[in-house]
Structure formats: structure tokens, C-alpha cells
Amino acid sequence: MEFQILGRLVGEVRPYLVVEECSMIDRYIVAECPRCHTLLVADSRYKSKTCPKCNARIPVNELKVIRMARDSREARMIVSEAKARRGGLDQR
């Protein structure tokens, strides 16, 4: 009961917080460059991403999505694990 009242008051006082929380869900895309097949991290808020290896500019909606991540740290971890598996360094 108290939680519902507090939640409603917070929503009335700071309605933008709800929008910010929803926009943070799976914001980063771990994808593969269609030209050179390098793994990269793209922010889904932007329209395009430039590949760090071949300098190709790729629209975000055309990227081959491997996984989604909530923050950049999680996305970098996904990329490093995938690179380790590709290179044969995975210990699993």
C-alpha cells in the first residue's frame, strides 16, 4: 500500500524518470560488420556506426545483431568473450 502511494507520488513529481529507465533497457548492440566481419558495439540511439577496422559506415538497422546489452561494459564483455571463442582461447 505504501509502495503504491510512493510510486504514484514519484510518477507525478518526476515523470521523466520512468522514461529514462525504459530507455536504458538493452541500449547497446553487439554486432558484426557486414564488410570485414569484425565484432563491434553500437549504441542503438544513433543511426549509424563506423567500423573501427575497415571504416565502413553501417546503418544500425542493417547490422547483424549478435546480442543486446544494457550498458557498454556488458557489451564489451560480450565482445571479448566472442573474440576469445573465435580465436580458440576459450577455456570452456
Describe the structure.
- This protein has 92 residues and is an alpha+beta fold.
- It has a domain of 60 residues.
- The protein is 39% helix and 24% strand.
- The protein contains three helices and five strands; from the N terminus they run H-H-E-E-E-E-E-H.
- A hairpin with a 6-residue loop joins strand 3 and strand 4.
- About 5% of the residues have low confidence.
Short description:
By secondary structure, the protein is α+β, with helices and mostly antiparallel strands. The chain has helices at 2-13, 16-23, 72-87; strands at residues 28-32, 39-43, 48-50, 57-59, 64-69. It has a domain at 28-87.
List the helices and strands and how they pair.
Layout: H1 2-13, H2 16-23, E1 28-32, E2 39-43, E3 48-50, E4 57-59, E5 64-69, H3 72-87
Antiparallel strand pairs: 1-2, 1-5, 3-4
Features:
flat, 92 residues, single chain, two-stranded antiparallel ribbon, 39% helix, three-stranded antiparallel beta sheet, alpha+beta
Total number of helices: 3
Strand order of the largest sheet: 2-1-5
- Largest sheet features: 3 strands, antiparallel
Strand content: 15-25%
Which stretches are low in confidence, meaning pLDDT under 50 for 5 or more residues running?
A: 17-21
Distance between the termini: 48 Å
Fraction in helix: 25-40%
Q: Which structural class fits the helix and strand makeup?
A: alpha+beta
Average predicted confidence as pLDDT: 81
Anisotropy-based shape:
flat
What's the count of strands?
A: 5
Radius of gyration: 18 Å
- N to C succession of SSEs: HHEEEEEH
